[in-house]
Write a sequence for this structure.
C-alpha cells in the first residue's frame, strides 16, 4: 500500500488536516468533479471533488444509506446516473476515454460472490474470456490467481458447491485475473463469518501489498478499514465528511458519530467548568471532573475521547504524587475477551473502557462488579468537538 | 371396452408397421410445430430479454399483455390469421391460407408470448447485481445478455418445453388456417379429430399415442439437458 496521500473535501472543517482543499493530484489515477446523484428529487450522492492516487487503498466507511455503494457503482461506470465528471488518468470518461475501455481496465467485487453456474476455473477465466484473451494466457493467469487465493484445489469444482469464503475467494481471483488498474470492493466480506472474514482480510492485505493495486473499498467493518487502507473516507448522507489516514480518523474524528464509527470507545459530553492546576482545564462529565490539557473556554460544551489503551486499572488508590491527573473509583460492569487483549467496561459515574492484557486481569484478580481505580493522564483526553451552547 | 382394446391393438399395429399415412402426418406435425417453436424462441428470447433488461414508460402494460398472451386461445389466433390471410384480407396476396406455412404462423403466434413470458420471468429471477457484475468484468452488452441467458438456462428450457407443448397439442388454429388437407396440411391433432368424427377410433388412438409419445420424447430430451449432472 502506498504512502498516505492528499484528498480534498471543499468546505469542510479545516481542523481535520486531511480535509483541507488540495490542488489536483498529479499522480491521480481516478478523480471526480461535482459528482451528484439525485433520485426521486432526493440527493443521494454529493461529492464535489474526489481524488484517488495510484497504488493506494482507500476505504469508504459510513452507516447504511451513506452513499458508499452509489459512489462505487458510479465511479466504476456501471450505470451513468450521475451529474459531473469522472476522470481516469486525467481523461474524462465518456468524452476523452471510452466507457467500455474504462470498464475493461477496472474490476469490481460485490458483497455476494455472484459466481456463474459453472466451474471455479471458468468463473475465474470469465473476465479474460470477455476480453478475448488467448487460451494459453487464460490458463496461466487463472492458475496464478487460483494459487494466489489458495483455491487451486477447487479448480474443477462447481461454483454452486463452494462455501461462502471459497466463493468470495473465487470472486476476488476472478477480478484479479483481469489485472485491474483499479479494484472496486463493495463490502466483499460482509456476509462471511468472523474467522473466514479474518483469514480473507489477511490474505487480501498481503495480495494488495504485493500487487500495489489501486483499491477503493466500501466496508462496514472498521477493523478491516483500519487494517487495509492508506486512507479512510467517512461518508454520511451522500457526502464525504472526513477523509484522512486511519490514524487521523481515530485520533482526530470529526464528531461523536465518526468517533463511534471508527471505534473510539469512550466518547463523553461535558461542560468546561474552570481551570485546573498547572494550566489544565476541568471538564465536568456527569458530575465528575476530568482534567484536560487542550486549551478550552469556561462554559463551553465539549465532546471528549479517552483512548482505552491509556486507561490504567489498579486495586489501590493512586497517589496524587504521580503524573496522573485523573483517577476515579470505578465498578467493573463487563469483562469482554477480545482475543489478544481484554476489554473492561467501567462505571465511574460515566462510562469508561480500558484495554488490559489477560495477564493483568489475572494478577489484579478482576471480575465483574469488582471496585477498582481507573486513571489516565490529562494529556490522554482528546477534545473531539466543541459546541457553542451555554451551560445551563 | 372392446372398442378401446381393439382400437389400441390396431393402433400399435399401425405404428409397428410404420403405416405411411400415419408416418407422413407425424413428420409433418413435427416439422410444423418444430418450426413454429424455433420462430417463437427467436422472437420470444429476444423480446423477453429486452423486456427484462430495459426500463421504459408503460413497461408494466407490455408485460401484462405478454402474460395475457400466454393464455391466448388458439381459435382466436386461428380466426385472426385466417382473416389476414384470406384472399381479400390484408395479406391475401401471399396465398398462404390452408398451407403448412399458415399453421407455422398461427402456432408461432401462440407460442411466442409463452416463450417471452418465461424468458422475462427467468431473467428477472437472477440476482439484480448479476448484470452489474458481468459488466464489471468487462463484458460487452451482447456478452452480458448471453451470460444472463446462460445463467437462466434451466428455466429457459422450460420455455422451450412449454412452447413446443403448446403448439403440438393445439388444434383450433391448425384446422382453421391449415384446412386439414390430406398429405399437405393434415397434422396429428386435426387428423385425430377427423378420424374420431368418422368413427375410425383405431387410427385416432394411434395418432393420439404418437402425439403423446412425441410430446414425451421431446420433453424427456429437454429434461435430460436441464437436469444433467453439473460439474463437481
Amino acid at each position: 500500500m502506498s504512502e498516505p496521500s492528499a484528498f480534498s473535501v471543499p468546505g469542510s472543517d479545516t481542523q481535520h488536516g486531511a480535509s483541507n482543499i488540495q490542488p489536483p493530484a498529479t499522480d491521480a489515477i481516478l478523480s471526480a468533479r461535482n459528482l451528484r446523484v439525485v433520485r426521486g428529487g432526493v440527493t443521494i450522492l454529493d461529492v464535489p471533488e474526489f481524488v484517488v492516487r495510484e497504488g493506494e487503498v482507500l476505504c469508504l466507511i459510513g452507516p447504511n444509506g451513506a452513499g458508499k455503494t452509489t459512489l462505487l457503482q458510479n465511479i466504476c461506470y456501471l450505470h451513468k446516473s450521475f451529474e459531473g465528471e469522472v476522470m481516469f488518468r486525467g481523461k474524462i470518461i465518456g468524452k476523452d476515454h471510452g466507457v467500455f475501455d474504462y470498464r475493461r481496465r477496472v474490476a469490481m467485487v460485490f458483497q455476494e460472490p455472484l459466481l456463474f453456474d459453472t466451474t471455479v476455473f471458468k468463473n475465474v477465466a470469465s473476465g479474460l474470456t470477455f476480453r478475448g484473451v488467448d487460451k494459453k494466457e487464460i490458463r496461466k493467469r487463472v492458475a496464478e490467481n487460483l494459487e494466489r487465493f489458495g483455491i487451486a484445489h477447487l479448480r474443477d469444482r462447481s461454483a454452486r458447491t463452494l462455501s461462502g469464503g471459497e466463493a468470495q475467494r473465487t470472486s476476488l481471483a476472478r477480478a484479479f485475473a483481469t489485472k485491474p488498474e483499479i479494484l472496486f470492493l463493495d463490502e466483499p466480506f460482509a456476509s462471511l463469518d468472523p474467522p473466514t472474514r479474518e483469514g480473507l482480510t489477511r490474505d487480501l492485505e498481503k495480495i494488495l501489498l504485493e500487487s500495489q493495486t489501486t483499491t477503493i473499498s466500501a466496508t462496514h467493518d472498521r477493523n478491516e478499514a483500519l487494517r487495509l487502507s492508506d486512507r479512510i473516507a467517512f461518508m454520511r448522507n451522500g457526502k464525504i465528511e472526513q477523509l484522512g489516514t486511519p490514524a487521523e480518523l481515530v485520533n482526530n474524528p470529526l464528531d461523536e458519530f465518526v468517533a463511534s464509527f471508527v471505534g473510539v470507545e469512550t466518547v463523553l459530553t461535558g461542560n468546561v467548568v474552570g481551570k485546573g492546576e498547572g494550566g489544565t482545564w476541568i471538564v465536568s462529565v456527569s458530575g465528575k471532573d476530568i482534567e484536560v490539557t487542550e486549551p478550552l473556554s469556561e462554559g463551553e460544551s465539549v465532546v471528549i475521547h479517552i483512548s482505552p489503551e491509556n486507561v490504567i486499572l489498579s486495586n489501590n488508590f493512586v497517589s496524587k504524587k504521580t503524573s496522573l491527573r485523573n483517577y476515579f473509583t470505578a465498578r467493573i460492569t463487563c469483562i469482554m475477551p477480545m482475543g489478544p487483549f481484554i476489554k473492561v467496561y467501567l462505571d465511574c459515574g460515566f462510562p469508561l473502557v480500558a484495554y488490559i492484557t489477560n495477564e493483568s486481569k489475572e494478577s489484579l484478580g478482576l471480575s465483574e462488579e469488582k471496585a477498582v481505580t481507573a486513571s489516565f493522564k490529562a494529556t490522554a483526553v482528546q477534545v473531539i468537538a466543541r459546541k457553542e451552547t451555554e451551560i445551563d | 371396452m372392446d372398442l378401446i382394446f381393439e382400437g389400441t391393438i390396431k393402433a400399435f399395429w399401425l405404428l409397428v408397421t410404420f403405416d405411411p399415412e400415419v408416418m407422413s402426418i407425424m413428420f409433418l406435425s413435427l416439422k410444423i410445430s418444430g418450426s413454429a417453436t424455433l420462430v417463437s424462441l427467436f422472437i420470444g428470447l429476444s423480446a423477453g430479454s429486452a423486456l427484462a433488461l430495459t426500463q421504459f414508460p408503460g413497461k408494466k402494460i407490455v408485460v401484462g399483455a405478454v402474460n395475457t398472451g400466454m393464455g391466448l386461445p388458439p381459435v382466436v389466433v386461428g380466426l385472426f390469421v385466417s382473416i389476414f390471410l384470406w384472399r381479400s384480407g390484408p395479406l391475401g396476396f401471399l396465398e398462404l391460407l390452408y398451407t403448412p406455412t399458415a399453421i407455422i404462423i398461427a402456432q408461432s403466434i401462440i407460442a411466442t408470448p409463452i416463450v417471452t413470458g418465461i424468458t422475462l420471468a427467468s431473467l428477472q429471477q437472477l440476482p439484480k447485481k448479476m448484470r452489474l457484475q458481468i459488466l464489471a468484468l468487462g463484458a460487452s452488452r451482447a456478452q452480458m445478455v448471453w451470460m444472463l441467458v446462460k445463467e437462466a438456462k434451466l428455466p429457459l428450457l422450460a420455455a422451450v418445453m412449454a412452447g413446443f407443448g403448446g403448439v403440438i397439442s393445439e388444434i383450433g388454429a391448425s384446422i382453421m388456417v391449415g384446412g386439414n388437407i390430406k398429405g399437405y396440411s393434415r397434422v396429428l391433432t386435426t387428423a385425430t379429430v377427423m378420424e374420431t368424427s368418422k368413427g375410425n377410433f383405431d387410427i385416432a388412438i394411434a395418432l393420439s399415442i404418437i402425439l403423446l409419445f412425441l410430446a414425451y420424447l421431446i420433453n424427456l430430451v429437454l429434461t435430460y439437458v436441464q437436469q444433467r449432472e453439473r460439474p463437481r
Q: What stands out?
A: Residues 141 and 177 of chain A are 6 Å apart (CA to CA). Chain A touches chain B through 30 residues (CB under 8 Å). Confidence is low (pLDDT under 50) at residues 2-24 of chain A. Chain A has ten helices and 20 strands.
